């Protein structure tokens, strides 16, 4: 049985906090994240009839948000690579390390290539199964897992505690 | 047993079939090195998850809920292009606007509920949003030239509208922050425009109603309604004495 329009609205509203988190992970900026969510919601609501009942609504919405993000990156004509010098990147991570490490993590995520950040966001933060995450990204599962593995490795290197001599 | 990083990742991510999972669990139990590798990946997962957990606890801005429910929100910066939106936001930081004419149904309910829970500054009468409590009192009594230092509501411009009614702009200090335009209609200040700021700068700082500081949609609303010039201090005082009639 398919959802009524109202039920669907209710389900989307329930997903808003998670979609906001996903947008925040991708953009690492609260304002940009909400702009992105706005854009994605407008698209999703316009194409709501394209969502197939019986498939995961969250994955469908994550996919739209991901596409909006990629379009945004392309429209800027460049990928967001704030630091090309790894040494400089590490110093920023050190300087911004706070008690919970949140800033450090956000900075570290910023070092990842976009496709790795996407894999990390979907699986490690949003908790999607590989199959769903691969669908959102539009890649085979093997591609997802290799991007995820590379992303993990970079994050481990950036976030590892300093060795005490 | 030789276990690849990829297998260990899949183990940590809960992606392995039960039989494989059990085998790897046994191997981990026998190998300090494996146990350490798993612990390292689990710790990363937890840190990442923890770093963004707080976002889930943040209240979702009403404009998103309204959007899903099909309400029409008039955006100061329609988001068709994020870069352009960011550029405009530097001029009008974080403002989004709701014209009172579309304050109906769920949006109005949400907004009133939020405000009522905190400051009780607006209420509904005959389906219209009207000023209430401290907001109504300020609109009734406050003079722009003599705003009490700790006032939570600041009245800005007062003017006579094309409709012949008196109208006043206001801003509300506090964590949510808002600004708007209300016009006196019989016994109430009807709220024509209400603009919320998700990121009010400097709580309690108040919004100086110089034209350049006004949220664009509020400025627009004033321009659309005003007849002639804003009231000067004396005219404002006379209008107050006459009960805004």
Order of H and E elements of chain B: HHHHHEHEEHEEEEHH
What's the alpha carbon Rg of chain A, rounded to whole Å?
17 Å
The overall number of domains of chain A is 2
- By DSSP, the count of extended strands of chain B is 7
Fraction of helical residues of chain B? 40-55%
* Average pLDDT level of chain B: 74
Low-confidence runs of chain B (pLDDT<50, min 5 residues)?
Answer: 71-118, 198-212
Helicity level of chain A? over 70%
Give the low-confidence spans of chain A: 78-99
The whole-number mean of residue pLDDT values of chain A reads 81
Sheet with most strands of chain B:
5 strands, antiparallel
Main sheet summary of chain A: none
Major β-sheet strand ordering of chain B: 1-7-6-5-4
Strand content of chain A: under 5%
Beta strand count of chain A: 0
What is this structure, in a nutshell?
Chain A is mainly alpha-helical.
Describe this structure in words.
The complex is a heterodimer of chains A (165) and B (245). Chain A has 165 residues and is mainly alpha-helical. Chain A has eight helices and no strands. In chain A, helix 2 packs across helix 3 and helix 3 packs parallel to helix 7. About 13% of the residues of chain A have low confidence. Chain B is an alpha+beta fold and 245 residues long. Chain B folds into two domains: 52 residues, no CATH class; 180 residues, no CATH class. Helices cover 43% and strands 18% of the residues of chain B. Chain B is built from nine helices and seven strands, in the order H-H-H-H-H-E-H-E-E-H-E-E-E-E-H-H. Chain B has a five-stranded antiparallel sheet, with helices on both faces. A two-stranded antiparallel ribbon of chain B has the order 2-3. In chain B, a hairpin with a 2-residue loop joins strand 6 and strand 7. In chain B, helix 1 crosses helix 3, helix 2 packs across helix 3 and helix 4 packs antiparallel against helix 6. Chain B is rod-shaped and about 90 Å long. At the A-B interface, helix 1, helix 2, helix 5, helix 6 and helix 8 of A face helix 1, helix 3, helix 4 and helix 5 of B.
């Amino acid at each position: 049985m398919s959802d009524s329009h109202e039920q669907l609205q209710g389900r989307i509203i329930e997903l808003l906090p998670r979609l906001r988190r996903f947008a925040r992970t991708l953009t690492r900026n609260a304002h940009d994240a909400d702009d992105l969510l706005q854009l994605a919601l407008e698209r999703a609501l316009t194409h709501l009839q394209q969502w197939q009942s019986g498939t995961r609504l969250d994955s469908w919405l994550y996919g739209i948000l991901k596409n909006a993000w990629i379009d945004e990156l392309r429209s800027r004509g460049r990928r967001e690579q704030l630091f090309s010098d790894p040494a400089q990147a590490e110093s920023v991570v050190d300087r911004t390390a706070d008690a919970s490490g949140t800033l450090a993590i956000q900075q570290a995520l910023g070092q990842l290539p976009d496709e790795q950040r996407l894999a990390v966001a979907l699986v490690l933060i949003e908790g999607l199964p590989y199959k769903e995450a691969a669908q959102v990204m539009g890649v085979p599962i093997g591609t997802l897992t290799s991007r995820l593995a590379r992303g993990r490795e970079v994050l481990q290197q950036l976030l590892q505690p300093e060795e005490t001599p | 047993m030789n276990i690849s990083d990829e297998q260990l990742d899949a183990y940590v991510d809960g992606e392995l079939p039960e039989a494989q999972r059990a085998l790897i669990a046994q191997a981990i139990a026998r190998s300090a090195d494996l146990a350490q590798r798993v612990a390292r990946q689990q710790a990363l997962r937890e840190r990442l998850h923890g770093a963004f957990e707080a976002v889930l606890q943040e209240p979702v801005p009403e404009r998103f809920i309204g959007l899903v429910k099909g309400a029409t929100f008039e955006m100061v910066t329609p988001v068709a292009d994020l870069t352009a939106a960011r550029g405009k936001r530097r001029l009008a930081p974080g403002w989004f606007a709701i014209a009172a004419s579309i304050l109906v149904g769920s949006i109005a309910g949400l907004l009133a509920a939020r405000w009522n829970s905190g400051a009780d500054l607006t209420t509904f009468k005959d389906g219209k949003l009207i000023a209430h409590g401290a907001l109504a009192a300020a609109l009734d009594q406050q003079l722009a030239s003599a705003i009490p230092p700790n006032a939570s509501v600041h009245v800005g411009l007062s003017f006579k509208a094309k409709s012949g009614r008196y109208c006043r702009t206001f801003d509300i200090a506090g964590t949510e922050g808002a600004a708007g335009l209300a016009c006196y209609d019989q016994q109430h200040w009807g709220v024509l425009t209400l603009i919320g700021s998700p990121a009010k700068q400097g709580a309690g700082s108040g919004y100086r109603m110089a034209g350049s500081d006004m949220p664009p949609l509020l400025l627009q609303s004033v321009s659309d309604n005003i007849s002639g010039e804003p009231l000067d201090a004396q005219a404002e005082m006379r209008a107050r004495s006459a009960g805004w009639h």
